[in-house]
Amino acid sequence: MDARILAVGASPRASGNTDKLIAAAIKGAAVLCGSDTVHLRDYTFSPCVGCEACRKTGACAKFHDGMTLIYPKLDQAQGLLLASPVHNYNVTAWMKAFIDRLYPYYIFTGERPGDWSSRLAGQGRKAALLAVSEQRPGEAGMDRTLEAMRLPLTALGYEVVAELPVYGVFQRGRVARDAEVMAKAKALGRKLAQSLSAS
Known about the structure:
This protein has one domain (2-198): Rossmann fold. 35% of the residues lie in helices and 22% in strands. It contains six helices and seven strands. The chain has helices at 17-29, 54-57, 67-76, 93-100, 142-156, 179-198, and strands spanning 2-9, 35-39, 77-85, 106-108, 116-118, 126-132, 159-166. Helix 1 (17-29) packs across helix 6 (179-198). The radius of gyration is 16 Å and the shape is globular.
């Protein structure tokens, strides 16, 4: 595992606000560590169907799709940046499918329900979250979107070290005109990279 960051973007819109924020965050991290960026729209993959075959194999045996290309990147990167626009008060369908396909990393013991753990835990893995919405502060959606990314990552053994909610932006790429927000995204990436170098 390398002290590098895997950035996962879940926007269906190329060169949009989510992409701009990811680019800024990666730029902030670049002084301290390397990175890979994955835009889920560029991959064809199925959502988890709950077949539970991965409980025996430790890997998804149901599908051989785009996630097969992403898993090795995730394995090798100590840092993870998840970024999603708010869609219908939550993460996008791409982000939800991606998170659900992380199920093979769980280890279950005995009968279900029962004890469980994660193969990613105890490795000093760190994460940061970005979310962008058309809604203004106080309107529904942002908290749920960040939580939908934070809770699974925490369960998988990541320490979420930084989060950036960005409000009131819709037009494609418009966020790039907001120097303050872009600086915050850059600082988020730098903080994630610093947390990796400190661990």
